[in-house]
Design brief:
By secondary structure, the protein is mainly alpha-helical. It is built from five helices and no strands.
Length: 70
């Protein structure tokens, strides 16, 4: 299992990469982290993180990034 901080780190690296303009435009957003997560909120965030991963993996610019292709 991944920690949310791993996704935050990946997202930051992708947004600062010069070859990922699509990500900079805000097309792929990282789901919010809740201060006091409920079970429902955790399930919803898991679904949103899955959607985030699918969006990254379907983005050609992101796939060229070393953090994604590793």
């Amino acid at each position: 299992p991944h920690r949310y901080s791993d996704f935050e780190t990946l997202h930051k690296k992708l947004r600062t990469a010069s070859d990922t303009e699509e990500l900079k435009a805000g097309e792929v957003e990282l789901p919010r982290k809740h201060l006091i997560p409920t079970r429902k909120a955790l399930i919803q965030r898991a679904v949103e993180l899955q959607q985030y991963c699918c969006a990254i993996l379907s983005n050609p610019a992101a796939l060229r990034h070393k953090e994604v292709s590793a």
